[in-house]
User: What shape does this take?
Amino acid sequence: MNFADLPFGPLERALVDSLQRLDPAASPVVLVSAALLCMALDKGDVCLPLARLAGQRPWPEHDFRLPPQGDWQVQLQASPLVGGNGDFTPLILEHGRLYLARYQAYERQLAEQLLQRAADLPVVDEAQLSESLGRLFSFNQQQPDWQRLAAAQAVRRKLAVISGGPGTGKTTTVVRLLAALLEQPGAANLAIGLAAPTGKAAARMAEAIRNAKAALPVSEAIKAALPDEARTLHRLLGSRGDSPQVRHNAANPLALDVLVVDEASMVDLALMAKLLDALPPSARLILLGDKDQLCAVEAGAVFAELCEGRGFDAQAARELQRITGQQVPVSEPSSQLGDAVVLLTHSHRFAGDSGIGELARRINGGDVSGTLNLLKEARSDLAWIAQPTPSDLLERLDQGYAPFIDAAKSADPAAAFAAFNAFRALCAQREGVWGVAGINEALEARIKRRSQVPSRERWYVGRPVMVRQNDYALGLFNGDIGICLHTEYGLRVFFEGEDGYRPFAPARLPSHDSAFAMTVHKSQGSEFSEVLLVLPEQPSPLLSRSLFYTGITRAKQLVEIWALPPRLGEAVVTRAERAAGLAERLQAKSAQPEVRATAVKAPPANQLDLF
Assistant: This one.
């Protein structure tokens, strides 16, 4: 078989070459399987489920066809490059899923550590907890009060997973549950850490907790003990450049008693596994996120998998009712994490008659006709342009950003950022006339012409930029937004900081792009008064229910959707499910597949460093 004819990318070819060096007699099926696995990882899958491609031609333009699943599995098992759970081989085959060894180890170790943490119950003063919760959540009248139940579980467990959409009070819940935890006997000096996947999310989390502390009905000592600084997960763990290794691990654990991670839906499998490995077994872990949002850019959908199979069995419901006074619905969990997962359902941002809130519900329900019908209604917070053209879109964006450009001319950073956050264009994809690059280029050219800025000039008053890579020396992180303003020293790019706005000379900035439009992925963790969401004109694999939901829920007051009806329908019906085995590993024991023991083979030298 001539591999040069197959459409492998550089990574796939490098992997195939490495495997051929380890086993010159490797069969074409094994090598193609490895290449397909590499391609799957690039798309966000953790593994390659054989059932997905068995008997098919992976590339329609080529004659190569994969064997039926049974034969395919037999051929893989016969190769010295492929092993089972516990084997030291580059590829691992487990329950019909093919993994690179490193990712199988990440998934297996993460599941084991999650289950151990969930099973290790701390000692809790229930009378004190009941009093704390009653006081801290007295403002809630909902029955059941899921914020109160989530806080109770976070104090009673060493693992808590709290999921909720925008405005459901995740930050309110976490600051009050931390206060309840600090009021437990002997807990006043707990070392509490706050972290998030990106610098922007970490800064927003810290700001929200600082703002929420003042109104807490607790002592000044408890308020002082609450943390008000957050770090990125990479900085927390001590990432080492491009190396997969981090400074903190099981041998050098984090000095924390409690860790709260916000925007946990953005955390990929590898990073979550390293985080659990570095967290002391005695520490509590609290994960906050939205299970319906887009997953991490890298491989895995960990947070969504953790939320599968949630529920309270009869015993947990009785205990929670005794402590919180809430009526707790009984639902037998199918996951061993079970009652560690709580879903917040009441949105304080979107009222009952909110078009955005209703649209979010219909999207998540996969209701295409309901979504389209709602968008045709005259809702004050929804608008739909069903026949968009590039010229009309450019005219609308020019109009939408006009107040921001005017504010930028004032040279007041606060006014410029307030105006910029009032309106934002979000795109499904980066390239093309309907993508980030095309929109930014066209809009910038228009603004430069009107402002009489030479077309070759990169910097001008009102240019918004997004940082593309972390720069710890400057304190700028991937996803941070800056705005170019005129100062007495010339043009400077201002970024929001804890103590005001920080100016930088344009030449000092790390890699960055213009940011009038940004991808929905990059908008996660942000919110804007108005959002203009642009979907591509042609079918795209990027269109999914989670992308559509994430895009519209960035808006607080108005969503304006520019998309053809077929693209909206495709987005609503397409669930962006990622191939992985974490949820299966966390299943209740009665639902788990039988695991057969496998012989352990001797590892080739440095093999796991490669794979």
About this structure: Residues 60 and 251 are 49 Å apart (CA to CA). Residues 593-610 have pLDDT under 50 and may be disordered. The chain has 24 helices and 20 strands. The two ends are 24 Å apart (CA to CA).
